[in-house]
Amino acid sequence: MRSASERRRGYRYWLLGAVLCTCASAALTSDLYVVCNSNVALRPADVREVFIGEKSFAGTVRLTPADNLAAQATFLGRVVKFTADKYASLWTKKAFRDGANPPLVLVNDTEAIAYVRQTPGACSYVEAVPPTGVAVVAKF
Fold first, then answer.
1. Domain boundaries, the chain
2. Which top CATH class is 31-139?
3. How many angstroms separate the CA atoms of 125 and 66, rounded?
């Protein structure tokens, strides 16, 4: 027979596990929008290649991707299919081998939207429903 303190401890662990599962579930089900400047015509299938440096142009427009630090973990897991370490390693190699610059890193959705609106060829991703003035390329 378990003591009262053991039962309380077990209940606390169960409650903590339930809270963590709920938070993880909410994070996994949030929408992620890839947005670009209105002058960019990009297909959803091209998004991954843009962010790993394999696609630099959409027609005649030079693409300038920007990572959104607030949504980066979700984007990397859901769209790029890389861990943060693998993504950083990829860009380190590209910088030394090809002289390529990694995407600019912005802090949150607000900065990402502002950057996309004012920069020709810009693309980023946000978790909030994008406002008008940007082209929604894909929803993941």
1. 1-30, 31-139
2. alpha beta
3. 8
